[in-house]
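Supplementary Methods S3. Input chains for the assembly prediction are listed below.
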Amino acid sequence: MTHTLAIGPYNDDEKQGLTRELSPIYLDGPASVANLDAAQREAIKAVAYKGHHAFGATEMDLLPNVGAVANYGVGYDAIDVKEASARGIKVSNTPGVLNDDVADLAVAMLIMQGREMEHASAWARSGKWAEQGEYRLNRKVSGGRVGIVGLGRIGREIADRLAAFKMDIHYWSRSEKDTPGWTHHADPVSLADAVDYLIVALVGGPDTEQFVSKEVIAALGSRGVLVNISRGSTVDEGALLDALESGAIAGAALDVFLNEPKIDARFYALDNVVIQPHQGSGTVETRAAMAKLQRDNVLAFLGAKELLTPVN
Amino acid sequence: MTHTLAIGPYNDDEKQGLTRELSPIYLDGPASVANLDAAQREAIKAVAYKGHHAFGATEMDLLPNVGAVANYGVGYDAIDVKEASARGIKVSNTPGVLNDDVADLAVAMLIMQGREMEHASAWARSGKWAEQGEYRLNRKVSGGRVGIVGLGRIGREIADRLAAFKMDIHYWSRSEKDTPGWTHHADPVSLADAVDYLIVALVGGPDTEQFVSKEVIAALGSRGVLVNISRGSTVDEGALLDALESGAIAGAALDVFLNEPKIDARFYALDNVVIQPHQGSGTVETRAAMAKLQRDNVLAFLGAKELLTPVN
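Predicted C-alpha cells for the full assembly:
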C-alpha cells in the first residue's frame, strides 16, 4: 500500500521527483479523495498538497491515519491548519526558496507601472513610434516613497531591493522590526497616506482578509499605485476596482486576484493595471526547489523526523 | 537680436523655460540653420541642442560667433565635438540627472525578459489563463551572473541596483574601478563568456561603434540575454538580429536601436525581445531636470562663467 497522496496540478518534472522518492497516488484535487477506496485512504500517512482548493475537515475525515500535509508554496491558506492542529496533523510549507523570485517580480511590476513599459512597448510595436515619434513622458520611480505591507521574508527582500533604488521605505508590520532606518507604521492607513507606492506582502488566510481596505486604498491618493504579490484576499478588490476606474488612485500592478484564474473582467478593461498570472514563484529553478522541499518534508515525516519547515 | 538658438523637438514645458530664460529662436532641426538670415546667424552666441541629427562643421560655419553648444541629454554623439573644440566652441551635456531613470528601465527590462512578463500579461489578458491555467515556468533572475559593458555613471547605477538582487557582477571598462569585489574584464568577449546577462552602458559615438561585436554576442551563448540602454550604434545590430533569430542567444531587451524610430522590422517579428521606444530618461521629473541643466549651461556661458557640465 502506498503511504503518500499527491494532490494537485504537478508538472512532469515534479511528478518524476514524487514518483522516484514517494511513489504516491496522484489526485487532481481534494474532491477526488472521496473516490479512493477505504483501504487506500486508511493507508495514507502523508499528503503532498499543491493548489488553491480548500483542504480541510472533510478530507481529513476521509484520511483517518494522515499525520502530515506538506504544502507546495509558501502560502498555505488552502489548508485548514486549525483543523489539522486539532487532529495532531502536521502542516509544512516551502518558505525561503521563492522569496527572490517573488521580490524580483514585485520590483519589475512596480517599474513597469511607473514607466508605462507595456504601453511603451505597444507604442513601438504598433508603428506609432516610427510615425509619431517619442513616447509620452511618464513617472520617475527611483527616489520615490514606498510602503511595504507586511515585512516578513518576502517583504524584506522587496524592501532590500528597493533600497538600492534610493526609495524612502516605510512599512507596516505588527511589531517594529530591526531595519536600516525604515519608517514603521502601526496603522495601514497611515502607511498608505505616507507613500506613493504600496506593496502588499502579507500572508494570506482569514486573518488578513481585506486588510488593504477601502480606507487604505483611499489614503493612497491620486498618485498612488498598489502592487500585490501576496493573495487576492488581502485586498478589498471591489474597492480597488472602483478606485482604479474613478482615478482615485493612479494604478496597480497585480500578480494575484480573487477567483483567479477567472479574475474579475473589470480588470481587463483598465489601462492603468499591470496584470501577471500569479507567476511570482514561477521559474524553473524555484519551482524545482519548492518541489524538493515539499518532498523532503514528507520524507522527514515518514522517517519519523521533525518537519523541515513546519507551520503548526 | 537674440543670442540663443534652440534646435530640436522641445515639448511645451521645455519651450516655456527656454522662452522665459533665453528668448531663443526655435528651429526644428540643424538643417534649418541655413534658413536664418545672415544677421540672425551672426548674432547667435549659444545653441541649446536637442535631438539625434548631426550638428557639425556645416552648422558651425553658418554660426560664426557661436561659443557654446549645450546638449539636452547625456549622449552628445550628434554633436561633432572635435570640430567644436578646434573652433574653441564649448560643448556641454546633461549628465547625472538621468542616471536613475535609465538604470530603473534597464533593471525592469532585464527582469521582464527573464520572467517573460509581457508574454505572461498577454496570456492573462487573452483569456488563456482562465481557460488553460498556469503560465509556463520561466527563468530566475536574482542570483544570476551579469556583465556591465561600461562602468560609467549609468553602468554603476545599474550595477548597484543589481547587487541588491544578489547578482554576481562582472564588468568591462578601460581601467579597473574601485568596486565591492566585482570582477573586471579587460576584454568584452571574456566578459560575455562569463555571464548570462550583458548590459550595455557605453557612451555612444565613433569610438564605441559595434563595440558589442559579433564575437561578443556569440560568447554570450544560448542562455545569454543582451540589454542595451546606451545607443544602437554600440552593438553590431545585424549580428544581434541573426543571433536572436537563430537562438544563438536567448533574448534581448532594447531601449535603443540603429535608425530609430524607424527600427529594423526584423525586431518586430521576434518574440524573445523586449522593445522600448528609447524612453530611458523619459520621465516628467528627469526631463525637467535635464532641460534646466541645459538652460543653466547656456546661461553660464552667456554670463561669461564656466559651463556647469562641459564635455570638451
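The first strand of chain B starts at residue 4 and ends at 7. The longest helix of chain B spans residues 284-302.
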